[in-house]
Amino acid sequence: MRPIRYGMIGGGRDAFIGAVHRIAARLDDSMTLVAGAFSSSPEKAIASGLDLGLPEHRCWPTWEAMLEGEAALPEDERVECVVIVTPNHVHHAPAKAALEAGFHVVCDKPLTCTDEQAADLVDTARQSGKVFAVTYNYTGYPMVRQAREMVRSGAIGPVRKVLVEYLQGWLATSLEETGQKQASWRTDPSRAGAGGAMGDIGSHAANIVSFVTGLRVSSFCSDVGAFVEGREIDDDTAVLLRFEGGAKGVLLASQVCVGHRNGLRLRVYGEHGSLRWAQEHPNQLHVCTLDGPDTTLHTADEGLSDAAAAAARLPGGHPEAFIEAFANIYRGAAAAMHAGRDDPDAFAYPGVVDGAEGVRFINAVVANSAAGWTEFDSSAQR
Ligand SMILES: NC(=O)c1ccc[n+]([C@@H]2O[C@H](COP(=O)([O-])OP(=O)(O)OC[C@H]3O[C@@H](n4cnc5c(N)ncnc54)[C@H](O)[C@@H]3O)[C@@H](O)[C@H]2O)c1
After folding, report:
1. Three-state SS for 368?
2. How remote is the CA of residue 169 from the centroid of ligand 1, in Å?
3. For the chain, what percent of residues have pLDDT higher than 70?
4. Is 63 touching ligand 1 by the criterion CB < 6 Å?
């Protein structure tokens, strides 16, 4: 399949995730960068595009100019897909406009800031018939896909308990006050949305639970707050979960856990077995059953599910990680674009509905924090 032509919004000089998207898009030649509006500053937007070797007439000063200018180009030249890697408050408007202009969309998470914007994108995407992928990239790991297949096949029995955590330590101080770019917008509710740690990384934690177990949250109890003085958004969140069907879970999302880098960890306990996976050691999946013995499955082992095998590129023992998992999302989305069908299950990419569910969950967790606490006198016996 030829690479899909795309234009990027965000991801300019000094930006973080845009560069990862660009590498992931070309890892399998799924997509090729032909245009961009890379920054909120028009000068920087153009300079960033030139840095990447784009011709000057495809380096646009704003995303609005890019959508209009690209739509006016001949059909076999213009972008087919728009990739959105801006801070969260600049997701909804360009995604909606891109769909309405007839382009496919890949957008980073969280999909939008508000529930209304998220629902609007679901409607707009459906009406457009265009492909919409949301980069919940952790679902691209081979061993996460293996875990999903094992839950689906009943290998651990009906799920009873799910523990998921995403712990980081980089916001343990008020980094935002130093002007650090990524910290500044992430701690500003007008640009991040209502969720801080919950939106930034809790969104991934919630999504991986849904992806691997298929469980749907029926109720929850959350404790959302900030440890760093003056911070207007949560930097530490805990959620007790109940799922339809009776399973229970715990979700932790924190950015003040000193010593943790990208500690996304999932543990799933079924009636007769369990699965454990950790993002910082992503090529292993630990499996325990009542009958034993405990086993560790490795990426590219013989006998893994088709879904896991298809997500691996290298012989076992050559580490595959974040970039490759991200590239798997691009591979799936590009295949859907070639097929002209927005079908996340068939082509293995997270879709706009997954993105909208994530936004609703983040906002509900933040809005309903700390309901139902019981006072307890811990010094009564002393
Ligand atoms: N999936 C993941 O693992 C992952 C990881 C990191 C970030 N993200 C998400 O990616 C997005 C970007 O995060 P980041 O850390 O790269 O942020 P960043 O601050 O490093 O980069 C944001 C970029 O967007 C540009 N931008 C802002 N407003 C713009 C506008 N109006 N037009 C064009 N460009 C504009 C900025 O100039 C900058 O280049 C966020 O939604 C974040 O949640 C996802």
Report:
1. coil
2. 20
3. 100
4. yes
Burial letters for 167-194: b for 16+ Cβ neighbours within 10 Å, e otherwise? bbebbbeebbeeeeebbbbbbbbebbbb
Helix boundaries (H) for 39-159 = 42-51, 63-71, 92-100, 115-128, 142-152
- Mean per-residue pLDDT, 10-29: 98
> What is the signed CA dihedral for 243, 244, 247, 248, rounded to 10 degrees?
20
Please say whether the beta carbons of 344 and 326 come within 8 A. Answer: no
Q: For residue range 334-354, what is the model confidence (pLDDT) as tens digits?
A: 999 999 999 999 999 999 999
What is the C-alpha separation between 11 and 59, in angstroms, rounded? Answer: 13
Domains located in the chain, CATH noted:
4-137 (3.40.50.720), 142-281+283-317 (3.30.360.10)
Looking from the CA of residue 181, the nearest atom of ligand 1 is 19
- Write down the pLDDT at residue 246: 98
pTM exceeding 0.85? yes
For helices 203-213 and 142-152, the axis angle rounded to 10 degrees is 50
What confidence score (pLDDT) does residue 372 get? 74
